[in-house]
Each structure stands twice: as structure tokens, then as C-alpha cells.
Amino acid sequence: MFPIRDNIPSRRPPLITLLLIIINSLIFFTLSSASYSTFAGFVYKYGLIPAKITKLVISGVPFSGSDLYPFITSMFLHGNTFHLISNMWILWLFGDNVEDRMGHIRFFIFYILSGVIAGVFHLVFNPISPVPVVGASGAIAGVMGAYFVLFPSARIITLVPTFFLVPVFLPIPAVVYLFLWFLTQLYSGTVYSAIGGTTVGGIAWWAHIGGFISGVLLNRLFLRDRY
């Protein structure tokens, strides 16, 4: 099921949501014009590599800024065009309304915090993974978690595939759509952790889970006093 739009118009321009989309897109298309070795080197330097963090923890070596900034920089990198477009579409769909309720600065802080917590979840559940994780999906999952709490009665117009290849668009309650989404992440994360996996198809399941949980639990701390 692919979400197309919701039925809740935002009351104010979603400036931070737009800015995040622009920044992510500019970084991706700038790097995509570089050589493969340059792109890969950038990903390994600024992506989040759990094994690297775990090694520092075990060795007792003090952390430096360069060891910790991947928790933030990784959420502004994407592996391919589909990865970027799918993430930015979901951010646009859910971000404008959440930003509306929080205000621009609060929303930006909330977004970054959700992304960092998502990275921590991925680290905890995949401590020895040498694969660099990149993408905004953990932070966006936080936005989805906030939307789940703040707009449960909203309708998500969703494209549902059928056996006859005829597109069907269904208005699904946000609380149902997002709860089902979270269950799929939890199921996949649990299954692949049980068999010793880390990411499958480039999907960091536990980052999504952690981001969503942070959005559900922390959104109230960032709301405007008045709406």
C-alpha cells in the first residue's frame, strides 16, 4: 500500500519540511555526480556504522565529535534515487501537519532528535554490523509516530495494488495505516534479528521502530502552546 495524500490541510507553510527535502535532494544529486569511489567513501565516512561505535565502547576509548556526528549526518544521505524520492514523499505527506502543530524550530529539533534515537536503536540491535546505514527514514518514522498520535482520525488516501492491475484508492484512517506500518517494521525487525540479520534490501528495521516510538512518546514535548 502506497500513501498518496492525506485530508488534513496545513494552516501554515511547512518551511522546515521543504528545507529538509531541498537539503536532502541537493546532497544526493551533488554526490551522485561524483565517482563511485568518492560516493562510497563519503557514505563510509558520514554513514552510521554500528561496529565502529561498538568497538570504541568496548575499547574504552573516549568518543570524539567525528565518532558521533554520523548519528546526524547519516540521516541526510541516501543510497539511490528511489531511496531519496520515497523518503521525501513520506516526509512531505506527514511532515507538513506535524510541523503545523509544533512550529518550525520545534519541528526541526524534534526531527533531528527522532533521527538520532532511530540511529541508537539500530546500533543497539545491530551492534556488530559493518554496513553503513544512511537515510532519513528513522527521522521520518518519528514524524509518522507524531502524526499517529496527533491526527488519528485523518484519512490517508492509499494506492492499493490488485490482482487485475487496476489501481484502487482507499481512504484509510491514519491510526490504522500507521499502526499496520509499525507492525510490519516490528515483525520484520524481530524476524531478521532472530536469524542474525542486520538490514535486508537496505532497510534498517530497528531504526524505523525506534524513530516511530520516539515520535509517539516525545511529540507532546514539542507542541505549540496554542493551535
From TrEMBL:
Keywords: Membrane, Transmembrane, Transmembrane helix. The keyword Lipoprotein does not apply. The chain crosses the membrane at residues 15-36, 71-95, 107-125, 131-151, 163-183, 203-223. GO terms for cellular component: membrane. It is a multi-pass membrane protein. One of its GO terms (molecular function) is serine-type endopeptidase activity. It is found in: Membrane. It comes from the Bacteria. Pfam families: Rhomboid. The keyword Transmembrane helix applies. Residues 67-223 form the Peptidase S54 rhomboid domain. PANTHER family: RHOMBOID PROTEASE, RHOMBOID-LIKE PROTEIN 10, CHLOROPLASTIC. This is Rhomboid family protein. It comes from Thermoanaerobacter wiegelii Rt8.B1.
